[in-house]
Amino acid sequence: MSNLFNDQKLSDYFEDTIIANIKKDIESLSDDQFLASSDEELIVYIFSKYEIIPLQIFEDAMARSQDEDCPIRYHSDEHKRLYDGVKFHVELPFTGDSKLWYLRPSHCVTHWPEGSVQQNENGNYILVFDIVVAIGQDPETSNKLVEENLKYIKLFINEQRKDVERFNHSIKKITQNMIDIRRDKLAKKNALIEAFKVPLKRSPNAPDISKLPIRRRLIKPLPPASNKLIEYGISDDHFEYILKVIRHEGATYESTPKMFKMLGEEGLRDIILAHLNGHYQGDATGETFRKNGKTDIRIEFENRAAFVGECKVWRGGKEISEAIEQLTGYLTWRDCKTAIIIFNKKAKRFSEIQEKLPEILRTHKNYLQAVPNQSSGEWRYIFKSRDDEGRHIIIHVFLFDLYLNQED
Questions:
Q1: Number of C-alpha atoms within 13 angstroms, CB side, residue 257?
Q2: What is the distance, to the nearest Å, from the Cα of residue 17 to the centroid of all Cα atoms in its chain?
Q3: What CA–CA distance (Å, rounded) separates 69 from 115?
Q4: Are strands 56-57 and 200-202 parallel, antiparallel or unpaired?
Q5: Residue 46 in contact with residue 22, Cβ under 8 Å?
Q6: What is the pLDDT of residues 69-118, one digit of tens each?
Q7: Is residue 235 scored above 90 in pLDDT?
Q8: Domain residue spans of the chain
Q9: pLDDT averaged over the chain?
Q10: How far is CA 197 from CA 61, 251, 304, in A?
């Protein structure tokens, strides 16, 4: 048997083991996995992994595993004589993190209870401690010794629980701080990469949707002559190519609507997202086009969007107005280029939606002007940013018909 709650300070265990492991887990996530996960998802994952379960003992389930003869010597015996005695092995079931039995809480007494953590025949962890009594002592001595050991065990557990609950409460804040540091680090890393390299290039394995082979790369503009903040943007050529990929994918949806019948906004978005990533690849991240929320397709840098695509299933003009409001409210680079991709799945009269849509767009309070567009079922407009009238946002609108009759 050894002293319990006396190997290491609980606070040192939190700092040197748990917090160190949280930091290691956050830093070891791939950039793709980290960027694809929200702060909330990361915090839930870390908390579920590192939440410490306080100890709880079950006195009513205590049992003796075995008795054995044991010679004992009293500490006060000047002649150091040995006496016949009996050793009782007491098993105490418990729940909680077994490591806690050896960790010292912030407040404690200097009388250490004794015991050791072992596995029973069922493979469950139990606390085992010995009670040794000399033959001829008061028969109640063994019970008193058990009660004394239990008294100090419960005292330490109660003090320890306070420390554990405080730490568990702090895990989310600790994790959030580490997430913020990682995101800041990635932003600075990407800033270095963007300042030195061409940010995007065509994947050599991308399916070609045009007759001529085209290699795609996003060209970073020259820095301004003044000391103004460099504002990254995508060229008109790249914007048109992105729209071309979306247009091709939407035409596929329309030609085989049964294949996409069960998909909602998010499912339809994910297919487009995958195809865009098949045509472009990022130098800094594995996924150039990323999803942010349920319906966004984005090219981002330092949390600012250079391209945003919003996917919507047609439910009426209100949602389209809300999408415009959302797009015009983004913190964007100058002349941000965006797309709203609308899918009709329920309306029989598709032509009526085609008539309503331009009016919905033109009556928005941030509308500036229409841009001539030659493609059928598409519209393009310039809007001003909701927070900065000097910023203009191009919104290209697609409308695809995925309607199926009931008998289909």
A1: 13
A2: 21
A3: 19
A4: unpaired
A5: yes
A6: 777 766 555 556 677 788 888 989 998 899 999 999 998 888 889 899 98
A7: no
A8: 2-60+97-119+137-187, 198-401
A9: 79
A10: 67, 34, 19
